[in-house]
Amino acid sequence: SCWSEPLGYPCCKGCEIVDSDDSGSWGVEKNNWCGIDTALCGGKKATCFSLAQGYPCCKGCEVAYTDESGPWGVENNDWCGITDGC
Hints:
This protein is mostly beta strands.
């Protein structure tokens, strides 16, 4: 079981994060919300290189640009770092 089941949502089979809130990370499978089990998806908390540079970690895994620091994405019209879990 995972954290989302008491809230009425199943655990996701995959690890693609669509949104995050105070409860945890959320995915969508078969057009329904599901909870991401971060322990099974690469660690307790997603980390990324961009935090040290003042940019947040991306919620998704779509790479828009790569430089010597690592892969970058764009979310909410701002740069973000692709997490190690991708």
